Every structure is written in C-alpha cells, then in structure tokens.
Amino acid sequence: DLGSYFKRNQAVTTVPVVEIETTNAADAQPALLIDHNAPGAVDAMDIENAGTTYALDIAVQAATGDGIRVDMVDSATNSAILIDGGAWLGTADDGLFTVVTDAAATIPVGQVMRLNQRGSGAHAAATLGSALWVSDVAGQSAANSDSAVYFTSDDTVTLWINKAAGTGTDDAVRIANADGGAGVHIIGSVAAS
C-alpha cells in the first residue's frame, strides 16, 4: 500500500531529494498541504533523522512572519507542543527546550518568552500555575545548591512581580515550605523598600 517512494544513495550531493519551489509573489496558497483525515492514533507527519544537526530547520524570510503556529480547536485538552526527552542528559549550556537570541544589540521591546493566559473568565477549580507550572522531583546534589528555577540578570531587575487589581484578594507571593528549611533565604545585601 505504498503511495510514493523517493530514494537516493549517493555520497556527495548538492541538492535535496525533493524540492518544492514557488516563485510568483502573488501566490497565496501553501507550497505543501498535508490533509490528514485519519481520526485514529496516527501521526500526520513523521520525521526520522539520523544526522547530528537539525531534524527540522525553518528559516523565516519575512521580518513579520512567525516560525511555527499551532492553532488548536477550542475543545482541545492535549498539549500544543509535547517534548519527550526520555532519559535526557543535556549539557551545562543546553536545555531540553532552549531559546537563544542576540536581540539585545537592537534594543528589543518584546520578551524572549511570553506566556499570556488571556481567558477572562474565572478558573473552574483551584489551579496552581495556570500560566506556568515548574516541577522538579530530583534529589539534591552533594553541593546542596540546586534549584528548580534560576533567574540571573546583569543590569535589569531580576524578578518583577506585579499583582494587578482584580476581584479577589489573593497574595502577590505565597511560599509553602514543607521540608523544614527557611521559607526565604536571602544572600547578600537587601535594599530598604
């Protein structure tokens, strides 16, 4: 039941196995459409890469274009993007999810990462971390200086918490510590507020 099959066995190559090119500036349709209507547990696209570079490389050519857009149906309950790192090892300079930018040279007005929970209604139930949830269940290292979240900055405020006026009376910051240590441990000088 094989539909189409492309195969190349050549040591030195200068062009892709398959190339799709559109050149008319007025073309308003995608260069490739995958219309996958199978409702079962099957992937619409599967990429298997044995190389040491990227499995998928996207070069955005327009200054106002987005790299990847995921549009979910309103009733969706699963993740828009799911990364399963398995027994990931990583290195000191790489994260399982890494965002790198050199935009400081152009004095950007945006944020490197922005989480915007735009729902105006109340939560149906108590929800911890409705915009961001961070969990680390690993044990402490011998240095006993691990942290689930780490912030560092040079010339800007390292952490700014703004509790906007709303209908409730929730705290701006709430700390619960069950292991007997200090709720807040401050190292260094503290300026008077």
Can you walk through the features of this model?
The protein is largely without helices or strands. It has no helices and no strands.
The count of DSSP E runs of length 2 or more, i.e. the number of strands, is 0
Pick out the low-confidence regions: none
Question: Which outline best applies?
Answer: extended
End-to-end CA span? 72 Å
Mean residue pLDDT: 85
* Count of helix runs: 0
Quickly give the structural class: little secondary structure
In what range is the share of β-strand residues?
A: under 5%
What fraction, in percent, of the residue positions are helical? under 10%
Tell me about the largest β-sheet: none
Radius of gyration: 24 Å
Spell out the key features of this protein:
little secondary structure; extended
SSE layout:
Layout: no helix or strand
Summarize the entry for a quick read.
The protein has no helix or strand. The protein is largely without helices or strands and 193 residues long.
